[in-house]
Amino acid sequence: DEAAAKKIVAKIVKEKPRHYVGILTAYQRLLRLEIQKRHAIIESAVEIDGNERRSITAKLKKQHGDITADFNIVPELVGGLRITLGSNVWDGTVKARLEALRNEMLSNSADTGEHLKENENFADPNDRATVEEEHMLEQRVRDRERKLLKKINTALSRIDSGEYGWCLETGDPIGLPRLLARPTAEYSIEAQERHEKMERLRA
Length: 203
Known about the structure:
Blueprint: H1 2-15, H2 20-37, E1 39-44, H3 50-64, E2 68-73, E3 81-85, E4 88-91, H4 94-117, H5 125-161, H6 176-181, H7 189-202
Helix pairs in contact: 1-2, 4-5
């Protein structure tokens, strides 16, 4: 309540208790944090219509009480929403999904490296063969992940350059449903089908 806040500040200024400047600074910081907790910033790649805005705001109010909201357009988010309320951030954007997938793969790769470094001595040759087969399977999975990691990094670069979401072959939009299902897609469905047909003919 703005009137109550002004009353408190006026009382502190009038009475000038010991270290009152520090008290006012701390109180100002607390007020700022409280205002941030009551104000949502909703970012999307495209304009959100009035009905959708009202729906999003109503859901936030139901969960977090009386809040205000600002809606901003951030094209590099591509698809989905990023909502900031105080220190909380809920990020359901394509870019965030790609970054989370990249971090997961880098973590898996580090774990595999540590696992493969472990020297295990087995008296039984069958145990050794089983472990070697597990290592080979793990390395195959990591090889696939390395290829996907390259695609993820390419997609993130294309987001940053503003080229993401456009078919490399035709220049047509790939389409948000396809990008949400496969964030690393570089071709529209039609172009991808042509590529797959050509690969089958070559095989």
